[in-house]
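Q: Could you fold this chain for me?
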Amino acid sequence: MTGTKAIILYPMNALANDQAQRLAGLITEHKELGGITAALYTGEAGATRTTVGPDGLISDRDVIRSVAPDILLTNYKMLDQLLLRPADAELWRQSAHSLQYLVLDEFHTYDGAQGTDVSMLLRRLGMTLKSYWVDGDTGISDEDRARPLGRVTPIATSATLGDGNDSSTMLDFARTVFGDEFTAESVVTESRESLQEWSDGAASRIDETGITVAQIDEKRLRELASASSATDPVDVARAALRSLYTVPNGFEDNEIDGLSLDLIRAHPVFHRILERCESAVPILSLSDPELFAGTDESLASDLERIDPNIRAQALRAVVTTLSHVRAVSGRTAPSVDVHLWVRELTRLDRAASGRPSSPGATTVYCSATIFMTIHSRLRTFPRSTAGTAIDPVGGFYSHLPARISMSTTLQSGVASSLTMTAFGLLSMRR
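A: Sure. Below is the predicted structure, expressed as structure tokens.
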């Protein structure tokens, strides 16, 4: 059958481009998929391709219009254009009976006004397809004619929609957007391999090599922290695994590389990270002494005395090792997601306190909690730092240098400045 069989809508071109490259690789690498055509239709300028190749999908609009691709990747704004322009009508004429699937990726983003717009857009798509149907066609049922999308099966994908076991909210949302009925059986959730299943047999295979799990004392913790400074993930992983295990003399680095997947499967530290990271967790709270010491209270007490930044660097080496093994071993290893948010602190009053130790250097306080020490020349960056003549309780800082420039002085006398703070979260999936 000619015509498009599936349309996949992405909320952002970056997602569409990434998936287009992956799909192009699948089609070109597997001979059995060689007859499938797929196209990318976005508003971005770029190389024009008339066939699917290793470098990407079809992007020539004349080709897309003349011979509708089996799979079309686009976004909702370009779908709107495809439905409006007379030049694109041939695409829908060819696909009026062939289109079977409509996929909305990142479904959780289609809320509010955007969700309303997309919901109406999908109904227009259904009306356009039906306009090419003829009365009396026995292949089209009355139910098909009544459904907003006709014969098209709507599919929504999201990693963040729903709240665990209760799918009612998600189903109601899907009914609103697609205008179709969805039963509880329509929800397909992920099935995770248990930690025991994933690590089964690894410990015995490592034992056969003579490598043994090492107790992570202060010396080994500092070795881990030092390993994190390497720039090549390969070097980080090798050094980290040698710190986590006692490795017999003569073991070459390439042998460590070959065992890396089983080495992370067998070590308790990686188990504890996976158990703690079932959901996102702040990185600093993850690198506590118990992560490295386990249930050994005496060892945990010893590690408690080590600078938390050293423990955080050790965790960095462990996470880098996980990420490297994932890159080498693929989906048999856990995936690592590290998120960093940088936000401007607004609607807060800040005060600069104390005499600068060098020109323009001071410490920023908020509610008696130190956020950061700012080292910049105030004359050069007046919006980045601030001094104050009156502290939060009314005391006068007469000793502050007169040359300190104040970006904004509130009525209370407390200077308001621009401060940045970063929050890190780590989550993993098996």
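A (continued): Residues 34 and 236 are 40 Å apart (CA to CA).
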